[in-house]
Write a structure and sequence with these properties.
- The chain is built from 2 helices and no strands.
- By secondary structure, the protein is mainly alpha-helical.
- The protein has a domain of about 25 residues.
- The longest helix is centred in the N-terminal third of the chain and has 22 residues.
Length: about 70
């Protein structure tokens, strides 16, 4: 009876090992052939700062004692 149990445990272990090995699948990752394109709709407007700097410069030149 004990020998029958050891055979059943061995068979059970063998079945579990076989299922575990067949459940392992190969995963293959490939990058695309096209590059990743990121569109950022950003508009940098430096004109406002230049105009403001020019106005401040003119104000300081007109009123040197302002500071």
């Amino acid at each position: 009876m004990a020998q029958l149990r050891s055979y059943s445990y061995a068979a059970y272990t063998l079945v579990i090992a076989a299922v575990a090995l067949t459940a392992c699948t190969t995963v293959k990752l490939e990058g695309g052939d096209k590059p990743i394109e990121v569109n950022l709709n950003v508009k940098i407007d430096q004109e406002v700062r230049v105009k403001l700097d020019k106005e401040i410069e003119d104000l300081i030149n007109d009123n040197p004692d302002i500071f």
